[in-house]
Amino acid sequence: MKYLDFYNKVINNDIDYLIGIDFGHGETTASYYDINGKQSPDGADKLHKLMLSNDGNRKKVYSAFYTMKDGSSYLVTNRQDFSKPGLRAGFKAPVADIEQDWRCDAMRQFIQVVYKAIKDNNPFLYEGGRPKFLIFVACPSQWTELEGNAAVAYKRYIEDAGMPVELMLKESDAAFLKWRHVVAGKNVLVIDLGSSTIDFTAYKDSKRVASIGRPCGASKVEILLSEHCTPDADSLNNIKNWMSARGIDSRLIEESCLLFIREKKELFYTHYFKEGTEIDIDVREGDYTDEKSTKRLMDCVLSKEMIDRIVAKYQDELKLVLNEIKVELLNDYNFTPAHIILSGGASRMYFVENLVNEIFSCKEDDGTLQKDKEPEYVVSDGLAKYAAVRYDVATRTIDVINQFVKWAEQDDNLLKIYSKCLTDALLETQLAYEMDEIYSKYVDSEYYTSYKDFINVAIDTINSLNTTHRPEFVKKTSEKLNQEINTQLIPKVKSILHKLTGKKVHINEIVKIDTIPEDAEATSGYLYKFIDDIAVDIHSEDILVKTPNYTKSRNRDKRIRIVERLIAKEKSDEGKWIDNNALSDSRRQIVNDIIESACLQIEKVIIEYELFDTIY
What we know:
alpha+beta
């Protein structure tokens, strides 16, 4: 069960924190929801950021790491790390695309280093050495559309790297969930601008209707700036040759320079452009060699005007993509967004918001454009928030189910319904056959004439016919069970849901039973009691005898009266071929199956009607 299993995992493992991780191409963030408020002051928001860096002040990190000669690996967290030997960056891609190259091991190592950083830098996540958290991870929205479902492969890949993943969600879905409390019920377009791609996901009435990706990520800005600021190709080649001669991967210089650029780019689009501050990009040979060379590989001071000219090519490409998406959504999906959600650290670039305003007429001023002050955390926040909603819904669902189970088990309410249906079906499908058989074998017999003979004939006949007519019996019983149980359960469940949520729901079916236990057959105890009860009325000679003579032969007239009396009794409400007081394990199991089926249906109704979406 979707929510119930999750609830049981949280409760049984004493979970306090639900973690969302966004492994981006350019940067990685992690957020967590504090279920029990252990890290949150009274009344404070329970959504927080996890510390990924060990320097105590940097929570997000670049999606990059370096490996020392002793094999130990560390996250890249500052400028000094950009030129460390063994640097790896730019490795995120669908697993199928990287299985045969260096990125496969690099991404696995990065996942391991991030997981270690989470555990080392956030000690409150453990208690007595035992983890108190569950992890939720996001994947690029387009990966679910790729052949072989790259999202499933990605989840398995992360788990194989040693990080347990409770659930994987699309990045765009996580971003939508972060803002759902604002945009629910409206036409919403999530624009997730990452380092390598830009994803567009459209939602109508909170349901995803389209998911489109384009290779127009913000790393193109870094490449344009790098090309402008690296005039000395000879110096780059010299350093690559120097590295190769010493067994150092020459890719280091290219990835490193892009990290230097990325750092300056983020500073510019976050702060400097507002202040009119220029950025100084200064990378020297000495950053990579043992020699104290001051020769510069990148040396330029860029103003806002210069940066705008350099990245104009990317702006034009982004504008073209946004216009294409607008037309595609309208033509292919009859969709026009009323609200835009911007996600991803690259959405800080001011021209992104300007282009969205121009093309989609959505603005932050009128509430039709939603953007976070920390856009790089929108996905990880949305993941943690989604996890919290799952737990909240699970908790409330358990309350509903507990009330239902209490009613079902009180005075054996559900068992009584089941037993009555079973008996009614048995009588309807077998009574006519049984009475004909019993009549011919007992009433018309010259040999079977005693009460004992009657009981033996009845038991053998009933149990024989129970096998012969079982398919008909099962079908009839199932029909009666489903009709009767749903008739009684649906109003009860609707009443419980309405009481707890204040919402009315439509329910067609709570359970669907298609099997019954093998022991649904007559019992000799019931028949002996039947003889005891009618003997005095039928046989005056036994009037002073408490226990009838079971071996005494009875004449045909008396045998007819016995069978007719049995038929009359079975047609009445008192008739019970099946002794329901002798409850078998299989019959109890069927009742438990009915309860479980009903609980699952209750959960589906809660999900369908979003009865407990209270955190958004």
